[in-house]
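Box 3.1 A note on notation
Throughout this textbook, protein chains are presented in two layers. The first layer is the amino acid sequence; the second is a token string describing backbone geometry. Keep the layers aligned when reading.
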Amino acid sequence: MRKKLMSLLLAGVLATSLLTGCGSTDDNTAEGTATATATESKQETVDLANTEVAEETAEITYANFNASGGNEETLQKMYDAFHEEYPNITVNIETIGYDDYFTQMQTRVAGGTAPDCYELNIENFAAYANKGVLAELTGIDTSGYNTTALNAFSVDGKQYGVPGNFSNVVLIYNKDLFDKAGIAYPTDDWTWDDAMEACEKISALGDDIYGIYQPITFNEFFKVAAQYGGGVLNEDKTEFTINSEENVKAATMMISKVTETNVQPTDAQMGGMGDWDLFESGRLGMIPTGIWAFNTFADACDFNWDICVEPGGTQKATHFFSNALVVNADSDKKEAAATWINWLASSDTAAQMRIDAGWDLPAINNEDVLSGYLKLTPPENRQAVFDSLNYLTVAPIIEDYSLMSDIITNKLSLAASGEITVKEALDQAQEECTAQIKLQ
């Protein structure tokens, strides 16, 4: 399978699903970032073909959120290696927690105090590029990148970011609980019907044991909607379709696990415990979550666990996340900033450090580096990480993404607590999003 790694990694699927609402069969499939129109008010160009950059002395700032919570040391090691290669460039790294990161960045960009270069998640990249606050990157040595991953962060044929990483979501399951319940382990072809049957048998093992935990939030909803053939926007992204028949089926599956079968604990039953904590305690059968959990679970879990591709409804759909590394259009040290982010995103040295640390994966095309990822255990079935790339889906990217997410999450929460029905929740979300958000 090694020779197929990069054909799986961000293959043609990525070109049609990045920066869209769902996969190729979903109503939210679109053209990707190439459809965005960037303003010209502030954007400037930084040319990495400039031969003088390696001779200049520069001190730059780099802000990120992805290293927070456990990978600060790895990022520092990456910088140390970079500084050995480019001793003339000093990078002051700011690692900010995700919950605060974008609030700070919005304030700093608006106030003219943004760092020289920084990280953007896939949901925010298009909005920042369209506001003209990112420098165009030219003269980049693209030989180390996967082409489709690189193209994901271009606008109108201009490169405004490089892909620093990718992560996706898989189904992680407790093999010991499956053994105790006398049921076969999940497989990549499971549907949610298969998963629900297993959930009920696992939950029957004890009053404090549950079959699954899947957050009832917008981030899960848009993915499950895609798994049932739905989506939150129509094909040309001019209207919301939040309360479609497919979406009602998806939300009903999510919420009935709590309100009807109770194979997923209520907030009260969680007692303030997080979903990862519940899994680590050995009292949770399955959890769909990111591959960034592997290291934590390897250290914390004293039971056997493994992974597979997430279950589907009428089709498969799995989360995909990628973060862009960008340069501030107002920076007076663009060449040094671009040199740093390009090295961080595409060098074999940084890529190997990322893999060795069990962080997310680099969007590179060096198969020798990537093949080492499959050798790491647990989990045994790391191939499922790459197999999941056949079913990529990401949220629809709109200017008022946060407002849309908040409205839908709030309504789903009301349904999960029994205050309104699932249909009422989606009808209300449809009405409020239509009234408050202008799509085009």
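Residues 1-41 have pLDDT under 50 and may be disordered. The domain at 33-166+322-365 is CATH 3.40.190.10 (D-Maltodextrin-Binding Protein; domain 2).
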